[in-house]
Structure formats: C-alpha cells, structure tokens
Amino acid sequence: MSNYNGQGMEQGERISKGRAVFEAGWTALKLGLTSFGGPIAHLGYFHQTYVKKKRWMDEEGYADLVALSQFLPGPASSQVGIGVGLTRAGMWGAIAAWLGFTLPSVVVLMIFAGLMHTFDPGAAGWIQGLKIVAVAVVAQAVLGMAGKLATGPVRAGIAFLVMAIVLLWQSPLAQVITIAAAGLAGLWLFRKEQAKEGKPDLPAIISRRTAIFCLGLFAVLLVGLPIVSGMTNNEWIAIVDSFYRAGSLVFGGGHVVLPLLESETLANGWLSREEFLTGYGATQAVPGPLFTFAAYLGMMINGIAGGIVATLAIFLPGFLLIVGALPFWNGMRRNAKLQGMLTGMNAAVVGILFAALYHPIWTSSILSPVEFVIGAGLFGMLMFWKCPPWLVVLAGAVAGQLLL
Hints:
By secondary structure, the chain is mostly helical.
C-alpha cells in the first residue's frame, strides 16, 4: 500500500501519490455501492474497511475523526470519508473519497427522478408505500439518536423544547436558532464535564493556510449567496443558494436536512410535497449518503444539470468545513467548553428529528388505519427484526401497491 504523506515528491513519489488517490477513490466507491442503512451504519462500514481491513487509521485516530464530523454541520458519514481520504492522500484523496462514496446513489436517484416525469406520483400505490417507509426510517433514527444524545433530564428537556419551537414556528430559521441556542446552553449546563485527554493527534496533511482558506470560503458563500440570489433573481443561483444553505446549517446527518430542504423546495414552488416525499422514500432504497437526496430534487427542478449542481452545492459546505477544521481539531477536542456546546447541539438534533417525524413526514403519509398498520410493520422490520433497509423499502412499495 502507498505511504503518500503530502510532502514534496520525486517521480516515484508522484506515482505513489497517484496510487494513494486511486486507492482512496476505489475503496470509497465500493463502500458507496454497499453501505446501506444511514449515517450510523456507514460509520460501522467505514470502521470495518478503513481501520480493521485497510489499517489506514488506528482506533484512536478514527474515533477522533468521527468526533470532529459530529461537531461540524454537514453529512457526518461523508465528512468522515472525506477526512480519511484527506489524511490518506491529501486534497485529491479527499475529493476521490467523496466522489466514490457519493456517485452510485446520485446516478440511481437522478434516473429515478427522470422516470418520475413519466407518470402521476399520486396515482401509484407503491409511491404512497415509499412515503410510509420514510416514516419508519425517521422513527428509527429518532429513537436511536435519543437513546444516545438525549439521555437524562437536561438533555431530554433541550430536545423537547427544540421540538416544540420547530413545530410551532414553521421557518427555516427555527432550526438554525434552536441549534445555536442549544449550543450556548450546553456551554453552561455541561461546563463541569471534563474533556477527554490522551488521544493521539490526527495527521495534518494540508497546511493551516489552506485550511483557513476553506473556512473563509465557506463563510463567504454562506453569507454571499443569499445576497447575490436576491439581487439577480437567477434560478441557478437560487438553487445553489438553497442547497448550499441546507448543507451548511444541518447538524446530525441526512435526516435532519429534510425540513430545511422541504421548506426551500416547496416555498420556491419547485416540487409538490408528494414529489418531495416520494423522492425521500426512494433515497432510503439506495446505499451511500442521504444528502444525495439533493440529486433527485435538482433533477426534478432542472434536469441533469440541476441534479449535478444541487449535489455539488449541498456537499460543498461539509467538504470545506472538514478540510478546514481538521488541522485545528487536535487542540479543539481537548476543550471542555466546546464539548459542552456539542452536547447541547446533539440534544437539539433529537428535537428537530422528532419535529420532522411529525411534520411533514407523518402528517403527509399516515392518513388512514391501513397506512398506520403498514408503517408499524415497516418500523418493526427495521427496529426489531433487523431487516436490511432495501428489504424494508421493497416491502413498503409492495404493501402500498397491494393495499392502497
């Protein structure tokens, strides 16, 4: 295996770098074709491949990288994969790892979106079945994350307050403000918790100057895109702005991006709610990151080019943040105050998930006793019988076609 370390290279070292980039991309592609089950399952696949099999990282380094991805907004599992590619083969390794893990589901979802134009979504029972699948999947995510991130009266209280605010204040700003407020509350409420020490440093394969540039670009785009979009009234800029903002403001992974994307796409009149939830259900059927839902949405909005632009826009902030933060993480992870902030934010994520489970997912999908029975059965398949997600999606589509 290659040992590229990002330093200056002679000819033989350039070959070594190219091989390392190829390995990063090829390994990620195989994961992108087989990693079903959402962000938590992805981290398990990554651990088995990158730590156990490939030995590209040790246990402590991998745990550090996962901790950083949880601290930052964006798609957590994708950011871990990008971080592995970065520490393995530099910036090109990070790009190759992201592309390999993301491409399979992007292609499948864009094909699905193309087929959506050939029939009426409301006329097919299996489409309603896919919408019910979304209920079961998000319910499982809520319970799983609540058991880890909202334990104890204080964390549970934060989660409940966030859920109430997000449901009663139907605005994209609600998620941003509640997460920020929960982080500030965490600084005070969890101030006595001690930071973990004794962990080895992660390799800093890029310079701090490059890292600062990435963080600065993230901030400039986050602030500048809404301004440019408002001034120009250009649809392409509006698409980039909406998806970039969704990718920038999400803590907790793919499920939490749902209400942000729902607000953006429906408010702009790009999709109907039925088309939106149908695509979200289909996203559960494919491996890879849930953020590739953007490929379906972009394709529905503006064809193939729209799918590509939306995908790049929603993943770009997470990419810039993990690359920009990695060189500074070794010092940050030992700061007890920042860990307290993260604890509060994680509890807020649980509250946002609870809110998303009710609206728009439950309110648009469970409309009769039959649909409730189907949803309960799908939930049982996931939660109790440990069926693979693709089988649950297939069962939901079949049940919807036969019973609805």
